[in-house]
Specification:
Blueprint (H helix, E strand, L loop, with lengths): L15 E2 L9 E2 L3 E4 L4 E5 L8 H15 L3 E4 L3 E5 L9 H21 L5 E6 L9 H7 L4 H10 L2 E6 L6 E4 L14 E4 L3 E5 L2 E4 L4 E3 L2 E5 L20 E6 L2 H8 L1
Parallel strand pairs: 7-15
Antiparallel strand pairs: 1-2, 3-4, 4-6, 5-6, 8-9, 8-15, 9-12, 10-13, 11-12, 11-14
């Protein structure tokens, strides 16, 4: 049986110096390690968010699975590890020590890898598909075209997947178009809808309720549970959008 739950907080074992991580004086380590019940533990990285967090967290998630974790849940600056409760389950302290020891290697491997996969997504910004575009523009004292241009100009990183199957939370939109979620979410947002919530952007892969500001729609299939590659995105991917006409959208759907 795993070691009984016997702590309410965990102090990271040690700080790790990374000479080329942002600057030579920064000591990088988990900001906090916290048990979540008796069978899970969550690792947090320091804020503010850094561009390499998604790939680093994903590397740690893969390591945890290789060590025997029954589930992992990566997020923007944290990783939840579910240890399980069977005869072969390892105690939470095991994962704390192992991942703390592995952190320097994970960092090195992330920065030794070639650039992340880049995914280009077509988007139609016609008014029919963009019920919130005018309001977002007015809120920021911009024209709708300026909002579209700023959305197209950025390259985004897939920080985590969740909410609904295949939904990629991408950061970060230009400050000039960052817009809070709707006060009253819609009961139905169409598949392919492209939205903004705060500094995030994302695409609804299936019909769903949702509270993001919808500024366009993509005809591309993003979630295919019957295919070998279920989701169009993976954590750490870079993503850019390109504009298509309504005619091209209809042709894509035909």
């Amino acid at each position: 049986m795993p070691t009984p739950f016997a702590f309410t907080a965990i102090t990271p074992p040690r700080c790790r110096p990374f000479g080329n991580y942002l600057n030579s004086n920064l000591m990088i380590n988990f900001a906090k390690i916290q048990p979540v019940g008796e069978q899970a533990v969550q690792f947090y990285f320091p804020l503010p968010l850094q561009a390499d967090y998604p790939a680093l967290i994903n590397a740690l998630a893969q390591r945890a699975k290789a060590l025997g974790a029954v589930d992992v849940v990566p997020a923007y600056h944290s990783l939840l590890i579910v240890c399980g409760n069977g005869e072969s389950a390892k105690p939470l302290a095991f994962y704390v020590e192992q991942l703390s020891d592995y952190l320097p290697s994970a960092y090195d491997s992330v920065h030794a890898q070639p650039p992340a996969r880049h995914v280009r997504i077509p988007v139609c910004y016609d008014a029919e598909f963009a019920p919130d575009l005018e309001r977002v523009a007015q809120q920021h004292q911009l024209s709708p075209e300026a909002v579209i241009d700023k959305h197209l100009q950025s390259t985004y990183t897939v920080c985590c997947l969740g909410f609904i199957p295949g939904f990629a939370f991408m950061g970060y939109v230009d400050d000039d178009i960052a817009t809070p979620r709707l006060d009253n979410p819609r009961s139905l947002v169409a598949r392919g809808s492209v939205g903004i919530a705060g500094k995030q952007t994302g695409i609804y892969p299936i019909d769903s309720a949702g509270g993001w500001n919808i500024i366009g729609r993509s005809p591309q299939t993003l979630y295919a549970p019957d295919k070998q590659l279920i989701s169009c995105f993976d954590i750490g991917d870079s993503v850019s959008f390109y504009r298509i006409s309504r005619e091209a959208f209809d042709d894509w759907q035909a």
